[in-house]
Amino acid sequence: MRKPIIAGNWKLHKTVAESLELANTLKTSLAGTTDTEIIIAPVFTALGKVAEALAGSNIAVAAQNCYPEATGAFTGEVSPLLLKDIGCSHCIVGHSERRQIFGEADQFINAKAKALLAENLKVILCIGETLEERQGGKMYDVLTTQIKNSLKDISAADMQNIILAYEPVWAIGTGQTASDEQAEEAHAFLRGLLQGMFDPEVAEATRILYGGSVKPANVDGLMAQEDIDGTLVGGASLKAEDFSRIVQFKCS
Question: N or C: which end of the chain has fewer CB within 10 A?
Fold first, then answer.
């Protein structure tokens, strides 16, 4: 059985004080949760303080991005080494906002993943198609290209530290969520790709999260699907009550 993961991506929201308030509230409200892994990804400026506040708790801390070098003349960047130094255990790479707004290519995302693995950090690797690509019948081609390029030269052993997140770009922040069936279809396809790229054991063990306007009202249906192992939550992760309810999803 794959242990579910509920991850919250706070994006560009909350000051250090606000981040600490939310983190401490979640620490209290979710203290008894043992059957689901919980991860939150605050802004860079709050990572150290939040990681310190959550040390020893059941909530892990992720960064939202990194640069694939440990040190060097890379003004404004943050490396996996520095993320590890302040208490992060995970990092998100390949989020559609990084791909769409900042033009990040699969090869750059692949380099980030390798750099994180080299520091023994876990990778939350995002992939997903745009509305135009889905409507044009290119969803499977896009997902195949993204997953193969982003996981290039990553071993079966390394896959123990890779979490996939399927995020249809057309559903992120739009309030429009893929139906349970649409999400399951994409997840099952991705698991099949992993089987072809690695082996059945890796495909079965890899956890694949769904992201795209996840909220308390739709999480139960999504989590009832066979190949959906958790969610990467955006806006709803900024409210303690909503995120707690998502973590405490109920599968019928």
Answer: N
The verdict on whether 13 is a catalytic residue reads no
For the chain, how far is it from start to end, CA to CA, in angstroms? 17
Question: Which tokens is 116 given?
Answer: 């994180």
Q: How far is CA 237 from CA 94, 176, 197, 241, 245, in A?
A: 19, 17, 33, 9, 10
Quote the number of domains for the chain: 1
CATH assignment at residue 165: 3.20.20.70
Q: What is the pLDDT along the chain (252 residues), one digit of tens a residue?
A: 899 999 999 999 999 999 999 999 999 999 999 999 999 999 999 999 999 999 999 999 999 999 999 999 999 999 999 999 999 999 999 999 999 999 999 999 999 999 999 999 999 999 999 988 988 999 999 999 999 999 999 999 999 999 999 999 877 777 777 899 999 999 999 999 999 999 999 999 999 999 988 999 999 999 999 999 999 999 999 999 999 999 999 875
Catalytic residue among 90, 95, 129, 187: 95
The catalytic position among 37, 97, 133, 167 is: 167
| Domain housing 199 | 5-247
